[in-house]
Amino acid sequence: MNPLMLLIRLLKPLLYPLSLLYGAIMWLRNKLYDAGLISSIQFSVPVISVGNLSTGGTGKTPHIEYLIRLLQYEYKVATMSRGYKRNTTGFFLAGPQTDARSIGDEPMQFHRKFPEVVVSVCEDRMTGIPRLLGERPDVDVVLLDDAFQHRSVKPGLNILIIDFAKPFYKDFILPFGSLRESRKAYRRADMIVVSKCPPELDRSAQQEMIRRIRPRPHQQVFFSAIVYDTPVDFFTGEPMSLTAADHVVMVSGIAKPEPMLAHLRLSAAEVHLLRYPDHHYFTTNNLEEIRQTYSNWDVAGKLIMTTEKDATRLAMHRDILEQWQARIAVLPIKVQLLQDAPVFDLRVKDYIIKEKEDMLYS
User: Fold this and answer.
1) CATH of the domain at 154
2) What are the tens digits of pLDDT across the range 220-271?
3) Number of structural domains found in the chain
4) Among 8, 132, 149, 236, which has the highest number of CB atoms less than 10 A from its own CB?
5) pLDDT tens by residue, 42-78
6) Taking the CA of residue 125 as centre, how many other CA atoms within 13 Å lie in the half-sphere pointing to its CB?
7) Which residue range is the domain that position 189 belongs to?
8) Do 245 and 218 lie in a common domain?
9) Sign (positive/negative) of CA torsion 310, 255, 19, 209?
């Protein structure tokens, strides 16, 4: 173990008192909401929240996209995110000239992939949703991204995403662990999805996790895996082939690039990873590092591969990238429910139908 990692391990117990303090603050906040002393607003449109208990990448974005694919042909779907690391504030509606700086990389990913979906951002969903519905009254359902702790809005359907590799029952509250609030907060969820599961996860292993989660009677637990789709050309969006003879410069600015790295190493001859912080906006120096790494690699059949989220930020430098005359690909991902996909889909659609019926007769 290197000296830095050893120092972190030795100092970590000192963070435990801070976790107790932070946990007490979150406990009091939740109690005030539960008692109605702080009010939550429910809107006259179906609102589905997708969130998590922990920091870092649990896979919320591909689950939002799963819901978009499920609903977009029957309903006018809108998404609302905070818009992390954007250079705008308040409510902002994506349009033809929008880029990642205006709305954040994940909302920009929705905007690029699903042009018929209404993509919006606002730090305060309580004020953002009325703005959204005022400007787009045709919206039938709102998907709230990363809103499990945003309790000023009471969603009609609360979907909690937990990471298979680090479930909340093995974690601790910040800063000692990565939980944003107490483990018991999972009880607010209507549906729980264990994400990033091994595709071969069998029923007995699933049942053991369900036993550890201890779902309430009203909660259903589902399991999903990440599926890598066919790479597409960064510039044209056309499918690209990746062969066992290819050498890949992987450019990653996401929280957990290891699964994609492992996938590429199974598919390509060699992979060289250039890793940047999560949600990183690429600088001139970064671009030069990427260009030189690609240009100086003296191999045949080489290409640059990046994630969909990174592609939204790299697109802001499209003119520079075109000058490289390099093969640049984007690797899309999807989620696949391991079992019970029809049950999940039906639960979501039944909620929307019931909400709309209640609105009709209220």
Assistant:
1) 3.40.50.300
2) 999 999 999 999 999 999 999 999 999 999 999 998 899 999 999 999 999 9
3) 2
4) 132
5) 998 999 999 999 987 788 999 999 999 999 999 999 9
6) 27
7) 38-168+185-227+337-361
8) no
9) positive
